[in-house]
């Protein structure tokens, strides 16, 4: 949290693009990953063990939804601050707000929160596995790369379109207001989709739920691609609904699988390494999509890449045994 506030405080003094890359890109990025789902997954795995393990997917999903809610909360606030006071003052107030939250976080009973539920483990006789697997051995397993590939390919599918969505809708004939609302609704729908993913995984298993979410994503992408030929509001709504509900849902699925497949002593390291696929895939998807739009003057190639990446990611849940049965 201190790194977050420092990044915002320093960003207000930026006079060159690389200043923002270092502060908001690097410093804030390190802060975000430090308090992100890797840390949360380790804690939730310790809390929801033994007889509570069946609730773990739901707990992970709700936590993921909380991360998504911060975007919906802070983006409008940041927009208002920029409109009324300028971007430098906006960064200043974001730094103040984050620093204020740091005090609240500091006084939380972390010793008790971080301690695994030893008493419950003794009663249920189902302690967290303590066998240590060398990271090189884990990295050499197909399961590790399959999980990495799921997040990598899914990030390509999402980020090949998401950064371009508003511009694409405007180019297709929609007004800027409708395009912006559509983008916001996609994020809002994602909260509900993420929150319910854990419950669905508990009931139907990872492979079935993953297949459903990828089918929804691909359906949404295909619907959006048709807007360039038929820009109707009904078609836009029909495309946004499945795309929004499925966006972000693969994160809880992968985190649940990692918590089940790997021992507690290497869980954080494995989860952190696998999550790198999101950043790498997002970079590849966004960069490649922007390049293709510039080269072709259209968005067809971007949609084609997004659909193919989503299909390949889904196939991993059918090809790899641990993902198929996890």
Question: N- to C-terminal separation?
Answer: 34 Å
Q: Could you give a short account of the major beta sheet?
A: none
Rough shape? globular
Extract low-pLDDT stretches.
Answer: 117-131
Helix content: over 70%
CATH homologous superfamily identity of the largest domain: MFS general substrate transporter like domains
> What class do helices, strands and sheet pairing give?
mainly alpha
Give the integer mean of the pLDDT values: 85
What does this structure look like?
The two termini are 34 Å apart. 82% of the residues lie in helices and 0% in strands. It is built from 17 helices and no strands. It is mainly α and 326 residues long. The protein folds into 2 domains: 1-124, no CATH class; 135-326, Growth Hormone, Chain: A (Up-down Bundle), CATH 1.20.1250.20. The radius of gyration is 21 Å and the shape is globular.
Key terms for this structure?
mainly alpha, Growth Hormone, Chain: A, 82% helix, 2 domains, globular, 326 residues
Please outline the helices and strands:
Layout: H1 2-11, H2 17-34, H3 37-47, H4 56-85, H5 87-106, H6 110-114, H7 118-124, H8 135-139, H9 142-159, H10 165-172, H11 176-204, H12 206-226, H13 233-246, H14 250-261, H15 264-296, H16 300-319, H17 321-325
Helix pairs in contact: 1-2, 1-5, 3-4, 3-15, 4-5, 4-11, 4-14, 9-14, 9-15, 9-16, 10-11, 11-12, 11-13, 11-14, 12-13, 12-16, 15-16
């Amino acid at each position: 949290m201190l790194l977050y506030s420092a990044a915002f405080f320093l960003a207000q003094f930026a006079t060159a693009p690389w200043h923002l890359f270092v502060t908001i890109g690097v410093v804030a990025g390190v802060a975000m990953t430090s308090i992100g789902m890797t840390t949360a997954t380790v804690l939730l795995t310790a809390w929801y063990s033994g007889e509570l393990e069946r609730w773990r997917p739901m707990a992970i999903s709700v936590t993921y939804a909380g991360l998504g809610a911060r975007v919906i909360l802070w983006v409008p606030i940041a927009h208002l601050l920029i409109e009324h006071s300028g971007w430098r003052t906006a960064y200043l107030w974001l730094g103040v707000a984050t620093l204020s939250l740091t005090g609240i976080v500091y006084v939380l009973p972390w010793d008790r929160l971080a301690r695994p539920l030893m008493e419950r483990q003794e009663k249920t006789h189902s302690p967290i596995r303590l066998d240590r697997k060398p990271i090189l051995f884990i990295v050499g397993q197909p399961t590790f790369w399959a999980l990495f590939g799921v997040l990598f390919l899914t990030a390509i599918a999402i980020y090949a379109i998401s950064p371009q969505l508003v511009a694409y809708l405007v180019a297709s004939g929609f007004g800027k207001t409708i395009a912006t609302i559509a983008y916001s609704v996609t994020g809002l729908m994602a909260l509900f989709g993420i929150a319910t993913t854990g419950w669905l995984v508990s009931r139907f298993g990872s492979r079935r739920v993953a297949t459903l979410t990828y089918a929804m994503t691909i359906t949404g992408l295909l619907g959006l691609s048709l807007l360039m030929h038929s820009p109707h509001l009904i078609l836009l709504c029909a495309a946004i609904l499945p795309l929004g509900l499925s966006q972000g849902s693969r994160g809880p699925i992968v985190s649940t699988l990692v918590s089940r497949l790997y021992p507690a002593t290497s869980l954080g390291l494995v989860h952190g390494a696998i999550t790198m696929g999101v950043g790498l895939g997002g970079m590849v998807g966004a960069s490649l999509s922007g390049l293709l739009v510039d080269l072709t003057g259209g968005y067809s190639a971007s949609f084609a890449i997004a659909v193919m990446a989503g299909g390949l990611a889904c196939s991993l849940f059918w090809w790899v045994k641990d993902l198929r049965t996890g």
